[in-house]
Design goal:
306 residues; alpha/beta; eight-stranded mixed beta sheet; 46% helix
């Protein structure tokens, strides 16, 4: 009996040590993941003919550093070649930076709008120690939007486009902080960070993912003072009264498109969904830019009253 109790204590202790180790490792990978180099992104986008830096630099623009509420600067570029009071703010995805948003910028500029691209927290030329997938990032988005209104006119009209983490950040901003935008375009958002991490963990370990998630969250709270369970776009999507366009490629394996379907079904009208049959994660535009533009243009004209 004593030997069985001893064995049980040892087994439980070993499991706890393993879960703590996995939680610490996972939190490190999630909070401090490796970012893509700016020059690498430039080469990738240039080779794909989605970027021409010479043409981009010819556009009238203001490159600024905006103080965040978290004691670092947010690098934003306000591109305004068009005589219009209609602006689109673009939010890039995880590991990327504002250069990744230029393909969308070109689309919206050609459609007659002015645009804003900026580096998310800890990405590109923006400061910040941890990436929190929307928890702190939503406040930086609020800061950028407020700066836009303060410096380019209180009567301007704004739409927001986000992909992946940028889309989740946008939804959290709209659902928790502000309703200053006229509409939102969500490309491949997750419904909750917990579900997305569980999906990722299940690909690497057979240990019960919810337990790994629990210990990971403990280290999130210790190291960056946020809970992953509060990064939940689906919890706030019903609060958004403005129109939302949901885009998500069906073959996406990184964030399954069913997560956008959940968001769409929870969102109250007006809303639109487009789930392309081709393309991986945030590849809907890359695979079919013409159709992407048609869907976006139709959505804005029908629901934004622009």
């Amino acid at each position: 009996m004593k030997s069985m109790i001893k064995w049980l204590i040892t087994a439980i202790s070993s499991l706890i040590v393993l879960l703590v180790s996995l939680g610490y490792f996972a939190s490190s990978q999630i909070l401090f993941f490796k970012l893509r180099d700016v020059e690498v992104i430039k080469r990738r986008e240039t080779r794909a003919k989605r970027l021409n830096m010479e043409e981009f630099q010819k556009l009238k623009q203001d490159d600024v550093l905006i103080p965040s509420r978290f004691d670092y600067s947010i690098n934003a570029v306000f591109v305004h070649p068009n005589e219009t009071d209609k602006w689109i703010v673009l939010c890039h995805g995880v590991t990327e930076n504002k250069i990744s948003s230029i393909k969308y910028l070109n689309m919206f500029v050609e459609m007659g709008y002015n645009t804003v691209i900026y580096d998310a927290r800890r990405h590109g030329n923006t400061g910040g120690l941890h990436s929190t997938y929307g928890f702190y990032e939503k406040y930086d988005l609020e800061t950028v939007v407020d700066y836009l209104f303060d410096h380019y006119g209180p009567d301007i009209e704004v739409g927001i486009h986000g992909e992946s983490m940028g889309a989740a950040t946008m939804i959290l901003y709209a659902g928790e902080l502000s309703n200053r935008a006229k509409f939102y375009i969500s490309d491949a958002s997750f419904s909750t960070l917990g579900d997305e991490l569980t999906n990722i963990f299940s690909q690497y370990t057979k240990i019960a993912s919810p337990l790994v998630l629990l210990f990971t969250n403990i280290f999130f709270r210790i190291r960056s003072r946020f809970s992953l369970f509060k990064v939940s776009p689906i919890r706030v999507i019903e609060r958004i009264e403005q129109p939302v366009l949901f885009i998500h490629s069906k073959p996406d394996k990184f964030i399954p498109y069913e997560q956008s379907k959940k968001l769409y079904h929870k969102k109250k009208p007006p809303k639109v969904a487009w789930y392309p049959e081709r393309g991986g994660h945030v590849e809907s535009y890359n695979r079919n830019p013409k159709k992407y533009r048609e869907v976006v243009d139709s959505f804005i004209k029908k629901y934004a009253e622009w």
